[in-house]
Every structure is written in structure tokens, then in C-alpha cells.
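Thread: "does anyone have the structure for this chain?"

Original post by V.I.:
We have the sequence but no experimental structure in hand. Need at least a predicted one for the grant figures.
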Amino acid sequence: MTRTELIEQIREKRSFLCVGLDTDIKKIPQCIIDEAKEKDGEDYIFRALCEFNALIIDATAPYCVAYKPNLAFYEAYGVDGILAFEATIDYLKEEYPNHFIIADAKRGDIGNTSKMYAQTFFEQYDVDALTVAPYMGEDSVTPFLGYDDKWVVLLALTSNKGSYDFQLTEDKDGERLFEKVLKQSQQWGNKDNMMYVVGATQGRMFEDIRKLVPAHFLLVPGVGAQGGSLEEVCKYGMNKDCGLLVNSSRGIIYASGGENFAEVAAQKAQELQQQMGIELKKAGL
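Reply from O.Q.:
Generated one for you, C-alpha cells below.
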């Protein structure tokens, strides 16, 4: 998906919501588990993951522009989990082809390894974007940038407590590590093929980030279950094209553990979409 197409979807839907598909067998409703076991016995995991994801996607698709399946929640179940990830991607591409798909895998390794990771996600799975860790530098990132209309989502300033261990450390000139990542990486990619992960819990730090990357899209986790403020993110992080994809995972997909889980997920997604519509209007978009 191109930058122009993504912006068009945001304007049309009045939403910049990304729904995270962090699908955990231990958290999905028992009714899904029971139905899958009834059909497949002890080999129920693939069916349960796929069924839960499909129902969540169907319920939330009207209110979001993107989905972000996290690979860890599929790899944990071995072959069945990987097949469920593939089936979920296929379902999205067939049923909701205008939604942006981010594989949250946080890859990044020496050049020849990154080249194979890029082939996996951009050729085999054909997702729109992939999260990438920048720690190993240019040659670990650039193999992902050689695909038309595909995106690298580079980790910059994350929402977890450990972000203070490295990302906010300063060099002798007072430049913080995340600022160095933002500056240096712009020599590798551009606003049409690179986004940055910035956690919603970072608050006014978005001001500093926008000084360095005024036009790039930011993928923003941490709204909802992690306590980030959507209003604050928009106040300091939104640009003239919106420039934000705000992710919510647990706050939507696990909002209910009962048989009404899809209905409640839709309600939570709609609530966020309505808030986003207000923020877009405030910004003149």
C-alpha cells in the first residue's frame, strides 16, 4: 500500500486505528476453544486462532485502517501457529484488501539474513509493513527497503519501561539514542517507505520526534491497556497528513471473555474511531 492510499483510507474512514492481533489461546473466549476442540480434538489450536481472528476482524474492520498480528503469539504454537498467521493474512487480503497489514516481528540481522527475512514477509506473506529493530545499523535495515509499496516500521522510542535503558541515553553532545536512530535512518529510507514506532506513553516526547521526522508516519502502541493518552498523542504527534497509526490490542480483542466478545470488540474499536474522528476534525483533516 502506498502512502497516498493509506492517507486516503484514514480520511475516508475518519480513523487511524490499528488493531493488534495478539492472539493468545489462554485469553480467547472459552466458547471458541470448545467449538474448535469439538471439531478437531486435541489439534484445535489452528482452528481456534483462525476463528477468533476472523470474528475480531469482521467486527472491527469498519472502524480501523490497519491490523498488526504479532508473530510471537503465533510462533509460540509451532507449525499450527504459523499456519494460523498465514491464514489470517490470507483472510485479510481476500476479505479486506484495503486494510494495511503490519507484521510485528521486530526483525533485523546482518545483511544476508535480513534479505531472507524481507523475502519471507514481503514476498511469501506479502504484508504491507514489517517492524524492524535498528540496533545493527544500515546493512541490517536496507534489505527491507528494496520493495515497492512496502514499509519498514523502525523501532525508535518504545512504550515499555526498559526503553530508558538504552533509547534515552545521551552521548557527550546530549543527543539521545532514539534521536540518532531517527536522524541516521533517514539516509536509508524516506516518508514513503519508513515509519517509526513511538510509544503512546512517551507523551510530550512526540514534540521532539516531530522536529526530526515531521512528515513520517508513526506507529503508536500503548493506547488503552498501557495507559497512553490518544488526545496527547494527537496533540503532539499528528501532522498535516495525520501521520499516525495508533494501535490497540488487548483493549479491543480481549475486552470481553464471553460469547459477546466480537460485539464488545466492535464497540471498543468504534469508541476509538469516534475519538479519532474528533481529533482529525480538530486538525482540519
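V.I.: this helps a lot. Residues 261-282 form the longest helix (22 residues).
O.Q.: and The two ends are 21 Å apart (CA to CA).
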